[in-house]
Fold this sequence. Notes:
Blueprint: E1 3-4, H1 14-25, E2 51-59, E3 62-65, E4 71-74, E5 79-83, E6 88-97, E7 104-113, H2 123-134, E8 138-143, E9 146-150, E10 156-161, E11 172-174, E12 187-191, E13 196-200, E14 205-213, E15 216-219, E16 223-224, H3 231-241, E17 246-253, E18 256-260, E19 266-271
Helix pairs in contact: 1-2
Amino acid sequence: MYRQKQQRSTTLTAAAVVALVPLAAACGSEQADGTGSGSVGAGGERITGVRWSIDSVTVDGTTHRAPDAAHVRIDDGGEAAGSTGCNGFSARAAVEDRGEGDGRRVRLDDAMFTEKACAKTPADFEKSLGRVLTTGPLTTESEGGRLTLTTADGDTVRLSRSEDASLYGTKWAVDAPGRKDGKGRAHLTFDQDAKSVSGRLPCNHVNAGATVSDGLITLGAPSTTRMMCEGSLMDAEKRLLGFFDSKVDYRIDHETLTLTSEDGATVRAVADQ
């Protein structure tokens, strides 16, 4: 069942309200059996645990192109979350056997959408996407990194697999305070050939050895410049330096890198465009 989140980050314009109303009317009443019971669609493509970019949605023969940022991810625990390119959405998800030996079907229930009004995301696209995702079971067809979800009426959502950013060679902008002049944003770049990491902390430049094995990065003792900055920057820098000279777990989800230290501390960074 489609539900709108009660807490709104932006007041809807009248036009946006009109566009979203049909989503509720399109909601199906069927309930999913089980959660996350399957992960492979017809054609052998993995469905769960993958960030899928939404390419287009076709309803009643009319195709609406998706904004670049539109995406969805269904995890193995039975939860789906994504974005229309403007509004976020989430739902309970089940991936089930079709009973015919030719693939899976996806069912989303209790879908919730935020209610921001964004000029660059067409209301017709959001309305059509909500209708397809919440109308009932969706059959799957996949091949070569592409996935098509189809309703019983023949409406479709076409998606393509999003590739994760590479650990190596990517400039990772670290979630940490920076200098007021904007020139000191913390960032790190890993070099596979040199087995090293270099970049900038909130105040000083840094270099260290970095080797990767079994999902862990072994960071060597850091070598830094010796500048002094205001207290908050030095405190943030000290926290980041605590990740060096140790092993850290790393995970990349699309364009987000998460490092987790041996004592459970985390730091996140995003691929700098």
